[in-house]
Amino acid sequence: MKKITTAVLLTVSLLAFSQQKMQVKTIPFSINSRTVTVYTSADSTDLRLTKTDVNLQFTDLKQPLETQLCVFVNPSKTFQTYLGIGGAITDASAEVFAKLSKKSQEEFLQAYYDKDKGIGYSIIRTNIHSCDFSSGSYTYIEEGDAALKSFSVAHDKEFRIPLIKKAIATAGGKATVYASPWSPPAFMKDTKNMLQGGKLLPEFYQSWANYYVKFIESYEREGIPIWGLTVQNEPMAKQTWESCIYTAEEERDFVKDYLGPTLQKSGFGDKKLTVWDHNRDLISQRASTILDDPEASKYVWGVGFHWYESWSGGDSMFETVGKVHEMYPDKKLLFTEGCVEKFDYSKLQLWANGERYGESMIHDFNNGTVGWTDWNVLLDQNGGPNHVGNFCFAPLHGDTRTGALIYTPSYYFIGHFSKFIGEKAKRISSVSSQSFLLTTSFLNQDGKVVTVVMNKTDKNLTYYLCIGTKATEVTILPHAIQTLVF
């Protein structure tokens, strides 16, 4: 009896000690002794991720007035865990990179992937064989090879694979790399054409699922770990470039009966599979159709989305992302593509292009998104190369005539998030008292809070950054974005 009592007491003691250790790790957030550092980028100024205020002090503000503009941050209310921010390394990006001087190449790598010297990208998306931002259409097999005996990523070894490896190395040796297909090979489709939409023929479902496995195996042999896949880029868009149409039911069944099981059987069941990968407008219907089926849902990590839904004349549908998060809180949301379309060299420094990024990133994170992926990381002075003339903007352009890098406002807007939000940060509550001041906040693992504030107006504004009954006064310039670290 004495031995049993001793054992019980020892167990209770260990439990108590364990609970004490857990309690130490969950110390309530305190604003005491904290000061605020502010970084600003603003239109019609030279401010670009520039430190504009340091050591701002918190003082008492027990009850703000309705006349006082406020940003209320509550670090005790935590939400999703941050995955990262990044962009796509396409064939176009890699080909432009190869044309730059060694000095400009190093500048490019540091500008994106170095957290201290640049903005700290940690996500890389890439294409499975060709997309519109390739110099031409190609696949990894000989046409008609359903058995995939000729599968080879030799094409990518010239430009794309070397750049991805350099990006990962600059990012500290690790990055979240995921891949997306734009179209199966022509012979697998009902149109016998990689371009202009068309559908994957049922008799090639298994062969196409095997293709993803071959891609993962090939890239990992090259030293590029593949974190995840999306099933199909923009599965509801018939494009002039590589594209393939799946209804929600077709994508569900392909995942449930072919792609999911094939990844599992091949030892790649840990790869994160993302569905939809298209605009916010139809995201709810696609998510419901796939995720309401338990046999399909078990293979799905999350739902990806783009920002091009405004092509039809409406506004951005930010709230639909939040609705999906409400319905499926156990699934992740990932912004998989966005860029400013219709390239125009005269608009490279158009501030509104950057504001589009800032507004989308704030809303998307506030609606539960864990990661945010821009489109091409680099394009040339013509917004390409692109084999169907679909030229677009990128945050950085490389002028292949001079070798110079051109930094656009979009680069700095993205940097206000990616440079400061740390790995596995938690989003916390951040609410503005007025609609024209946008905000989101994260709590880094080191205990620092990162609050992003964006001024959409033409006016200088003064606002109070409020934490409980403490606040500090901050001024923000017209059409500016700020990151506050404290």
Automatic annotation (TrEMBL):
It holds the Pfam family Glyco_hydro_30C. One of its GO terms (cellular component) is membrane. The keyword Hydrolase applies. Residues 1-18 form the signal peptide. Transmembrane segments: none annotated. Gene3D superfamilies: Glycosidases, Golgi alpha-mannosidase II. It comes from the Bacteria. Residues 425-484 form the Glycosyl hydrolase family 30 beta sandwich domain. GO terms for biological process: glucosylceramide catabolic process. Belongs to the glycosyl hydrolase 30 family. Keywords: Glycosidase, Hydrolase, Signal. Residues 84-421 form the Glycosyl hydrolase family 30 TIM-barrel domain. InterPro entries: GH, GH30_C, Glyco_hydro_30, Glyco_hydro_30_TIM-barrel, Glyco_hydro_b. This is Glucosylceramidase. GO terms for molecular function: glucosylceramidase activity.
